[in-house]
């Protein structure tokens, strides 16, 4: 393969990178162009945050789906080349046989369980790019060591030629992602003018806020914001939500009750949808936070009517309020400062007095008094 052919391959790959960056093509086409140009290889393009166990995004060409899935779900965590991908300087290119050969990892779990199952692909050339402080893109092309004498220098040349295109494309994709994320955050607040509402990332850093939240930040109650860092009036709530966001499942949602001075506040948190078109440059998840005062005059339930109609006690009414707000029984018990067992006994009493037999039936009844 002469230098002119290497330039043609580089141009083809650069074009596919530029198309993928703006959503006109798939990132998988980038991998496909590599494997077409270098027969007998497989290629992958992976976005990973090394602070989290999960990979953000991965596509491949000429690698079986089962092998890709096992890599994503487990073997990426014990990949012996992980240290390079995590710590090398931005724009680095690794030639495995020259810089970090696979033979030194013979006997490792990664080699014995994953690489052997994939096949004779011990040689590789890979490119590493930094997207953000904790996010890396890496593009490896694997092939047999029997091809190393020709593929090593050819792939290194192609990656050197396409490195600038991939860097520029990622900058474009990141800009589009950030702009779209900002629009999504603003859109989430459009219909929430009557409650304290704001959007944060997974570090509780502020992205957007409505007028009620902005006014609350000025008062520093029931929530404050300094240097874009959110803090609730009750420090334990800030700590609890920080832990929840750090260890969150997918499509995270939660409800908390905060006691602040003489008021109780219901805090509802919902994860906003990710923008699937730009997952290669994923960015941080965003969360909509809404705060409602449970003791306000326009509270959901008409307590007097419930007490008069069914003979509920004030403590039973308080438990009904928490359940009507969407809390689970355990959370409603904590909000009312009673034990879970006590809340169960009160719930049985409420069932008996109102004539219902389940929490869903009780909530349906409570909506009548909304």
Query: How big a fraction of the residues is strand?
Result: 15-25%
Provide the spatial order of strands within the biggest beta sheet: 2-1-5-4-3
Radius of gyration: 28 Å
Major sheet summary line: 5 strands, antiparallel
Give the ordered list of helices and strands.
HHEEHHEHHEEHEEHEEHEEEHHHHH
Unreliable spans: 296-300
Identify the overall geometry: elongated
Please bin the fraction of helical residues. Answer: 40-55%
Total beta strands:
12
The secondary-structure class comes to alpha+beta
User: How many H/I helices?
Assistant: 14
User: In angstroms, what separates the terminal alpha carbons?
Assistant: 76 Å
Mean pLDDT: 88
Helix-strand blueprint:
Layout: H1 3-21, H2 28-37, E1 42-48, E2 55-61, H3 65-73, H4 82-87, E3 93-95, H5 96-99, H6 109-118, E4 123-132, E5 135-143, H7 148-188, E6 196-201, E7 206-209, H8 211-219, E8 223-226, E9 229-232, H9 235-246, E10 253-260, E11 263-271, E12 286-293, H10 303-310, H11 314-324, H12 329-335, H13 340-354, H14 359-368
Antiparallel strand pairs: 1-2, 1-5, 3-4, 4-5, 6-7, 6-12, 8-9, 10-11, 11-12
Helix pairs in contact: 1-2, 1-7, 11-13, 12-13
């Amino acid at each position: 393969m002469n230098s002119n052919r290497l330039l043609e391959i580089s141009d083809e790959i650069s074009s596919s990178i530029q198309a993928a960056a703006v959503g006109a093509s798939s990132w998988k086409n980038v991998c496909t162009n590599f494997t077409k140009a270098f027969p007998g290889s497989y290629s992958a393009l992976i976005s990973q945050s090394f602070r989290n166990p999960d990979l953000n995004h991965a596509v491949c060409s000429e690698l079986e789906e089962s092998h890709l899935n096992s890599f994503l779900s487990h073997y990426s965590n014990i990949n012996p080349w992980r240290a390079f991908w995590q710590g090398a300087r931005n724009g680095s290119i690794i030639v495995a046989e020259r810089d970090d050969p696979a033979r030194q990892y013979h006997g490792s779990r990664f080699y014995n369980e994953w690489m052997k199952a994939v096949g004779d692909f011990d040689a590789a050339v890979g490119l590493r790019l930094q997207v953000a402080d904790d996010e890396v893109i890496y593009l490896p092309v694997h092939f047999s060591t029997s091809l190393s004498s020709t593929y090593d220098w050819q792939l290194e040349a192609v990656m050197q030629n396409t490195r600038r295109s991939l860097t520029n494309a990622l900058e474009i994709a990141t800009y589009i992602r950030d702009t779209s994320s900002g629009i999504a955050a603003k859109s989430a607040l459009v219909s929430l003018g009557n409650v304290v509402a704001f959007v944060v990332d997974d570090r509780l850093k502020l992205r957007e806020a409505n007028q009620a939240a902005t006014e609350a930040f000025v008062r520093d109650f029931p929530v404050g914001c300094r240097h874009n860092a959110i803090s609730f009036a009750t420090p334990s709530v800030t700590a609890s939500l920080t832990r929840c966001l750090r260890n969150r499942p997918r499509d995270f949602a939660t409800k908390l009750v905060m006691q602040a001075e003489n008021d109780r506040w219901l805090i509802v948190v919902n994860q906003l949808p990710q923008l699937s078109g730009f997952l290669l440059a994923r960015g941080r998840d965003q969360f909509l936070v809404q705060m409602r005062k449970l003791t306000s005059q326009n509270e959901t339930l008409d307590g007097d009517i419930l007490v008069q109609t069914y003979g509920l006690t004030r403590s039973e009414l308080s438990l009904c309020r928490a359940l009507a707000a969407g809390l689970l029984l355990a959370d409603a018990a904590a909000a009312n400062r009673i034990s879970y067992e006590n809340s169960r006994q009160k719930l049985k009493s409420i069932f008996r007095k109102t004539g219902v037999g389940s929490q869903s039936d009780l909530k349906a009844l409570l909506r009548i008094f909304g």
